[in-house]
C-alpha cells in the first residue's frame, strides 16, 4: 500500500512546494483528499483553496504549472512535500517564490 497523508480534522494537509532543481521553497498550500489524488494521477500540482472553498490546479489560469517530480511525506505524515519542475513563477505577484519578503530580526 502506498503511503498517504494524515489529513487534519478540517480534511486538509499542508503542502510545501519545492523547486526540485534549485531546492528553493516556492509556496505553501493545502491539499484535501481530492487534490491529493489528482496530483498523484496527473503529476500536476492540485490544491484546495481555503479562501475560495474550491479545488484548483496550480497554473490553470496563469499558465505557471508545476509538474510534480516527487512526493514526500514528513515523519508524521501530516505534511506533504511536492518537489516540482515549475514552468514559471510560483507566486501570484510574479515572484519566483511566495517567500520573497525578508523579515529583519534583532541581534
Automatic annotation (TrEMBL):
InterPro entries: PRA-CH, PRib_AMP_CycHydrolase_dom, PRib_AMP_CycHydrolase_sf. It catalyses: 1-(5-phospho-beta-D-ribosyl)-5'-AMP + H2O = 1-(5-phospho-beta-D-ribosyl)-5-[(5-phospho-beta-D-ribosylamino)methylideneamino]imidazole-4-carboxamide; 1-(5-phospho-beta-D-ribosyl)-ATP + H2O = 1-(5-phospho-beta-D-ribosyl)-5'-AMP + diphosphate + H(+). GO terms for molecular function: magnesium ion binding; phosphoribosyl-AMP cyclohydrolase activity; phosphoribosyl-ATP diphosphatase activity; zinc ion binding. The keyword Hydrolase applies. Mg(2+) binds at residues 74, 76, 78. It is an enzyme of class 3 (hydrolase). Keywords: Amino-acid biosynthesis, Cytoplasm, Histidine biosynthesis, Hydrolase, Magnesium, Metal-binding, Zinc. It holds the Pfam family PRA-CH. Binds 1 zinc ion per subunit. Binds 1 Mg(2+) ion per subunit. Residues 27-100 form the Phosphoribosyl-AMP cyclohydrolase domain. Pathway: Amino-acid biosynthesis; L-histidine biosynthesis; L-histidine from 5-phospho-alpha-D-ribose 1-diphosphate: step 3/9; Amino-acid biosynthesis; L-histidine biosynthesis; L-histidine from 5-phospho-alpha-D-ribose 1-diphosphate: step 2/9. Its EC number is 3.5.4.19. One of its GO terms (cellular component) is cytoplasm. One of its GO terms (biological process) is L-histidine biosynthetic process. Its cofactor is Zn(2+); Mg(2+). It is found in: Cytoplasm. Coiled coil: none annotated. Zn(2+) binds at residues 75, 91, 98. In the N-terminal section; belongs to the PRA-CH family. Homodimer. Catalyzes the hydrolysis of the adenine ring of phosphoribosyl-AMP. HAMAP family: HisI. This is Phosphoribosyl-AMP cyclohydrolase. It comes from Candidatus Amunia macphersoniae. The gene is hisI.
